[in-house]
């Protein structure tokens, strides 16, 4: 199994052998069972300030009981207690969505309309606040698990995103200190049922993210959690999703309106972020709604983010078939 990590870079993951999941230190194509450190990756994160130096030491110790990654089942790297999701956080994506939903009788030329929306996004970046909401941990699944498409809609869509993983409690922190509370980063695919995003029966209440995003398995996560010092700055990495081999999303995090520090800081003004929590950073352009091509049984999504590995998920119908 190709980790798609830089040679020698350590990562955390949750893997299993013979049905027993365990927290793992991952280096190249080998893993070390970390059960002697803590029972889960979330528990490792709860002691992150002391655990991370230990992990760097273990990663360079050939006398440890390393085992091949090959043959092990890879799960989501961490079981989060809270999932903070972010909407409308990529400039190009927001512009594309607004154009796609503009009224048929809108008299403005499209270029003029795009410029107006772009100016609004610039104002948001300068003086606005992120649009945050909560997701359910029960939606989390592994990076290679099949995704069951619920039968109540045929408008399920992909949203590959960078996610920050909290390593130190954060409550009312400012942007300057926010990244000190991030242990590392991982990949998520924040699947969305498009026709459930807005309540047609109660349009005055706006969006309904509970119904649109929280079906079982609608948040493929991982494969790995790469520590922040090894990942580097999160503000210019490439996010790429391919559907059946065809590129759909291919964007840099430079297009984010609010960076990771702004998102963590904003969420922490309302509640405490705890070790293991996920902070999703929003979807870049290139969703199925943009392409006019939504998910069907049999589709295969391949997602990569620079330095974080790759995930592959296959879509199946409720009965477990791909056709």
End-to-end span in angstroms? 27 Å
Give me the strand/helix succession: EEEHHEEEHHEEEEEHEEHEEHEEHEHEE
Q: How much is the radius of gyration in Å?
A: 20 Å
Helix tally?
9
- Judging from the principal axes of the Cα atoms, what is the shape? globular
Architecture of the largest domain in CATH? Alpha-Beta Complex
Helix proportion range: 10-25%
Mean pLDDT comes to 94
Q: What fraction strand?
A: 25-35%
**Number of separate strands:** 20
Q: Indicate the structural class.
A: alpha+beta
Uncertain parts: none
Main sheet characteristics: 6 strands, mixed
Oligomerization category of the chains in this entry: single chain
Walkthrough of the structure:
Residues 83-314 form the Fumarylacetoacetase-like C-terminal domain. Belongs to the FAH family. This protein has helices at 41-45, 48-59, 91-100, 110-127, 175-178, 209-213, 228-231, 260-268, 288-291; strands at residues 10-17, 20-27, 30-33, 67-68, 73-75, 83-87, 131-135, 140-141, 147-148, 156-157, 160-166, 182-189, 192-193, 219-220, 226-227, 238-243, 246-252, 278-280, 300-305, 310-316. The chain has 323 residues and is an alpha+beta fold. The protein folds into 3 domains: 10-75; 83-89 and 131-316, Fumarylacetoacetate hydrolase, domain 2 (Alpha-Beta Complex), CATH 3.90.850.10; 90-129. A 6-stranded mixed beta sheet has the order 7-6-18-11-12-15. A 5-stranded antiparallel beta sheet has the order 4-3-2-1-5. Strand 1 and strand 2 (20-27) form a beta hairpin. Helix 3 (91-100) crosses helix 4 (110-127). It is globular, with a radius of gyration of 20 Å. The relative contact order is 0.20. The model has no long low-confidence stretch (mean pLDDT 94).
């Amino acid at each position: 199994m190709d980790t798609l990590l830089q040679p020698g870079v350590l990562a955390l993951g949750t893997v299993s052998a013979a049905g027993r999941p365990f927290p793992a230190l991952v280096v190249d194509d080998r893993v070390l069972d970390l059960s002697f450190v803590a029972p889960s990756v979330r528990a490792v994160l709860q002691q992150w300030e002391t655990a991370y130096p230990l992990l760097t030491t273990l990663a360079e110790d050939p006398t440890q009981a390393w085992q091949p990654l090959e043959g092990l089942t890879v799960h989501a790297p961490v079981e989060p207690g809270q999932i903070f999701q972010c909407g409308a956080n990529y400039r190009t994506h927001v512009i594309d969505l607004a154009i796609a939903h503009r009224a048929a009788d809108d008299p403005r030329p499209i270029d003029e309309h795009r410029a107006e929306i772009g100016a609004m996004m610039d104002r948001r970046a300068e003086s606005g606040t992120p649009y945050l909401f909560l997701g359910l941990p029960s939606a989390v699944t592994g990076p290679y698990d099949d995704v069951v498409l619920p039968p109540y809609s045929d408008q399920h869509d992909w949203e590959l995103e960078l996610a920050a993983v909290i390593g130190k409690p954060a409550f009312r922190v400012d942007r300057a200190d926010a990244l000190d509370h991030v242990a590392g980063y991982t990949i998520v695919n924040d699947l969305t049922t498009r026709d459930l995003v807005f309540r047609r029966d109660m349009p005055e209440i706006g969006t309904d993210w509970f119904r649109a995003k929280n079906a079982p398995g609608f948040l493929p996560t991982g494969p790995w959690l790469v520590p922040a010092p090894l990942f580097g700055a999160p503000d210019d990495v490439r996010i790429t999703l391919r559907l059946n081999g065809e590129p759909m999303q291919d964007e840099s995090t430079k297009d984010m309106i609010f960076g990771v520090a702004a998102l963590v800081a904003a969420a922490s003004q309302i509640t405490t972020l705890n070790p293991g929590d996920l902070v999703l950073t929003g979807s870049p352009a290139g969703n199925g709604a943009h392409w006019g091509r939504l998910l069907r049984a049999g589709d295969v999504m391949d997602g990569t983010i620079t330095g974080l590995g790759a995930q592959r998920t296959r879509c199946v119908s409720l009965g477990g078939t791909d056709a």
